[in-house]
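Record type: ASSEMBLY
Status: queued
Input:
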Amino acid sequence: NATPRRQLEKCPRSLLVCEKSNFLNEKSRHDIHVSKHNFNYKISVLIPECGILPANISSVIHSFSPYYLVRDLPVYQLLEETFLEPLVKKGNFYALSYNTKIDEDNAIALLSSGQLILSLDKDTYEQLGLEGRPSLYNHKKAMRFVVTLDLTDKSLTPGTKRYQRVLSSLKDRLPLRYDFLFTKYNTGSDEDQTLNKLLSQYSYEEHKPAFSQHTLKNMPCPTLYPSDIQGKTLSCDPHHFLEWLGAVNLDISCENAADSFLSTYVCPEPQSSVSQALLCTVTGFISPENVFVLLQELRQYFDEPKFTPWISLTVHGFMDSPVSWGATEHGFLKGGENLYNFVCFKNQDYWLHMATGAQDGCPP
Amino acid sequence: MEEPSKFERYVYKNASVYHYMKISLVLENGNKYITDAQFKQLIICGLKDLYGEVGASFPFDLLKFDQNELTGILRVYNSGLVKLWSALTLLGSYQNEACAFRVTQVSPFLLALSGNSRELRFGDQLIW
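Status: finished
Output:
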């Protein structure tokens, strides 16, 4: 019933959760937040007052697990006995259908917890015949359905009736096949054998996450005090800070006059000038374990005195993942952002910003 | 040394006052030499054609412009997003040459524009 003008001014809903805590606090949930965000596309580290990437951080980044692009993999394969026990149930293994758009196509995700998520359009869902529920983000008609299979559940142990039924749906009734991204955080070598055996049956490519770094010179940098996460007095506010981070990542100038024709964007206040800053990015299909190891290493940056009081780590999720954190359903309305950002302070205080779009549950 | 802080949590809903758009201009006869000012002016003309002088009189920023690729990043107040997006969609010509704007990404978070997983490509594969 909104008037035409108000209709024109409406926008999709977005959420930003800001948490402040300390890494040394035993109740801190930073490890859970990282581990539950299963699918990570890009990581970006910003270290003000730094020109060269510290060796320990560089070493961690270059030890990130490889990931695999597997072509035309039948989905039932993820349930196969030989695969299930050594790989899926052990955890640390992630799979996501590649090049499938969550707002248009079917999308499949296997979480480290052993949950297999099938986000399906209506036809596929009906033909497949597996029990699921309508998507939380259907508009008026139910056009999308989500089937969640807990592959670690007893009822899905190979041999059980339910297991047979699910397997035959995916194998015979409607054999779904997609390109997949796989990654595994390495904890032992016998799991690798299983993975290699699986991969060898299909066409696949191995990739190392792509790394790049830049040293930025003479730039304004927001002032942040850990005690003021809301940006009321000492720090700049969270939205302006994240906007500035976006500007840095996108090489957007912050030096504009207020009356400039092209852009009026400036670094938020309060700010100070830094002579240099290091920006490095890693892109690919990155496991949460790798992110966590990097976070631990970044925390140690302040073990020795540094000029900067803070450093930042941004993690971008996949736009087309059917989940954001844990098994919370994720969709793509006008966009599929699901990202989080750590600001690490000298005293081991941290800020965690978690941002999602219209078709997302509230971050945990 | 500051004392370790206590836990705090805030949830902001629709608190971003802006939306950001990553766009690219495709010209029928290949790329022309277009300056950043011309690029922005083209969009303003599109807005005026569609919404009139008054309807088009809201500001937006051309945060970034790549002259080689004819891509740009725009920042607009939320109230102007729908108008800006529709004007971009309907813009059909530049200096008598057929053209089209592609909106590759929209988000209330500028930071999200730096991590678009739909850009993940391999080898010679064309995605979309």
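Annotation: The longest strand of chain B covers residues 97-107.
Annotation: Chain B has one domain: 18-109.
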